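Comment thread on ticket #2218

A.B. wrote:
> Attaching the input chain for the structure job we discussed in standup.
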Amino acid sequence: MNEIEKFRADVERIKKHERNDGLKYDGIKAARNAADLFVRNNKKAGELAKSVADYWMEKYIRNGDLNEVPTINDVDFLCDIQELFEGTLEGKSVLKPEDWNELREMVNLEAENLPIGMLTSLLSAVMDHGAL
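C.D. wrote:
> Ran it. Output below, let me know if you need it in another format.
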């Protein structure tokens, strides 16, 4: 099991735990726990990982069906970003043009705090997706 598969499985466990808590499902709480896991998994990205998680919460989670979030597509977003951080994103991404533009802004703000290899890889991916 690679890191992305493990992350997906961990998010499913978070959702299952939240559903089995005996109370009404709290999608915001499940998503916040998934976002926190994403940040912990991407310590190398520092504040950029937190900025991405905050953006994800605002753009996708708070605008989604709170009885269902995080959905598979929501988790795919975080997985694509994690693969970007690792330099392993290949093929089609679920990120939309506005996500790439927002990511460019976040990378620019955190550029001086990122490892040079990660920064180069991120800027290259942003440029490949027409957001520069």
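A.B. wrote:
> Thanks. Noting for the ticket: The chain is about 65% helix and 0% strand.
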